[in-house]
Amino acid sequence: MSSGVGVSTQSLGRCVPVCCSMPTSVGPGRTRRRTTVHTVAMDGAARRHDSSAAPPVRILEGQAGSDAAALAVRAYLDELTDRLQTHTDPALGIPGDPAEVTPPQGDFMLVSEVGSGEVVGFGAVHVLEPGVVEIRRMWLRPDVRGRGLGKFLLERLENRARSLGARRVLLGVNESLVEACGLYVSAGYEPVDRFEDNPYVTHHFGKQLVHDRPSGLT
């Protein structure tokens, strides 16, 4: 199984204040994007007593088409190939067209360690139809799992889906990814009918983010 990607987000810009946005240059074939940085860190006292705690990380939005995103997706596909014991088609990793995961159609988010700048995960969202957003190919590097980052990333993806107008989110996962299945169920996702033709996806889940008010209530 791949140990992950040794890519750094330093090339995406030096550390900037939390929750600020900065424009990035656009190269040939790239989609214009803005990078939003969010930083999360454990309480200092808790960190001193828990050596296995997740390192401080930042979420970088608007990364579709970036070199760091391509390397992270390649690491995801390498792991999937190893776990499924079969070749995986790169075209099924994320959309070939970055516009599908670029606002307003979606977003591609990288997770990087604050200290090292190394990418440790990613996730993407894509608007399927008004009010319905798909969470696509959420992934964390194996060595950072089991520390609460999965829940953190899933919550950030749900928040990003809400900002794109989602009232409901859908996602698909392969049954061999037992950690992911457990995470989604614990977060309130329920089985739904198949909504995509990806042959590697065996289970489909959905979650209502915004509930309609009962009629007669104001």
UniProtKB/TrEMBL annotation:
Keyword Lipid metabolism found: no
Segments forming domain N-acetyltransferase: 71-212
PROSITE patterns: GNAT (PS51186)
Keywords: Acyltransferase, Transferase
Family matches, as Gene3D superfamilies: 3.40.630.30
Protein name, per record: GNAT family N-acetyltransferase
Lineage, broadest ranks: Bacteria, Bacillati, Actinomycetota, Actinomycetes, Micrococcales
